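>> Question from a student workshop board

For tomorrow's exercise we were told to take the sequence and the ligand below, predict the bound structure, and bring the output to class. My setup keeps failing. Could a helper post the expected result so I can at least see what it should look like? The ligand is pyridoxal-5'-phosphate.
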Amino acid sequence: MDRFEGDFTAQAPLPEAAIEAALGVLRSPRLHRYAPGDDPVAALERRYAAWQGRAFCLAVASGGQAMQIALRAAGVGPGDAVLTNAFTLAPVPGAIAGVGARPVLVEIDADLRLDIGDLVAKAGTSGARVLLLSQMRGHLGDMAAISATCDRLGLTLIEDCAHTMGATRDGLRAGNFGRAGCFSTQSYKHMDSGEGGLIVSDDADLMARATVLSGSYMHYARHGAGPSEAAFAEARRDMPNLSARMDALRAAILLPQIDGLEARCDAWTARHDRIARALADVPGLVMPAPDPAERRVGSSLQFRLPERDAARCAAFVVACAARGVTVKWFGRSTPEGFTSAHASWGCVAPQDLPQTDAVLATLFDMRVSLTFGLVDCDRIGSILADEAARA
Ligand SMILES: *Cc1c(COP(=O)(O)O)cnc(C)c1O
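>> Workshop helper replied:
Here is what the output should look like for this input. Compare the format with yours to find the bug.
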């Protein structure tokens, strides 16, 4: 039986320009964003805001901090209910719990998108004022319908775009639908600085609060794409300093990656589609239906084996691993690696989510690495197809 010899955890090399810029910062050595002189963090904020097409951008320490700060800047406080998808990763409910709020989980459908009917129901029963929408694994959903529903219900929409940097729905970038969009630059996201996060918005008041929350002290006017000084009158007095700044080194590494971002998104999708092609005709294997209005970035691949029980799902993961293909399974009863299901999030009160549980029970997830060539993708696809047919 053939085996895939590549590395599912490997990262594509950083651009030389990023390495040079990092060395420049190390030699300066002005690593803090508020050190006198050039500020690569402000430069990153300017450049990313322009790329994204939003008025403001704030760089912070992580995607999780971006979400916590955005929630707090949007007025979420202790005891408040916040709606979010039942299918996401632990830092999302973690960000809600981090501001003392209560995550209220909304069902997903079989295509891994938010169930808008359940959103309406849960908004009614919970009294939540905010939806933190996780565009989990790049499946945006019908953003026009979600936005319209939020408007109708008076919900503030905040987007978790950890997996959708560069993605679009109806031609509009993920992160530009809500009051704020939150991105991660952790190594396994679409730009890599090890850790890091970005918040984008067109709302000057929210961004003034977010900037002070991030730990700007009285240097808020030195930001690259922030609101004018007048917007800070209240925020500078009222907001606590949560010390979640991005440093110059990470910004210097990120800045040159923006130029290559579109091409990287296309490269992920080409790889994803090659693997998906091999899975198209496997009996009993179901992939999320592509959404023609969406440009999804294929940095990961999901499929279900709805007719298989838990024992066979577990055996499938083992069989793929034996042939060098790393697949994660969301139906596992105990969390493993980065993968966990809502029942194991300690900060979330137990909630009944029969529809999501039925989807997750047989849902598999695979990272698509840019280090894979297209021929590698054919081999991965044929191993997955082979083992799925056998499972
Ligand atoms: C990684 C991730 C985050 C948080 O990003 P960090 O930078 O790791 O804090 C948020 N949401 C999702 C869906 C993620 O995968």
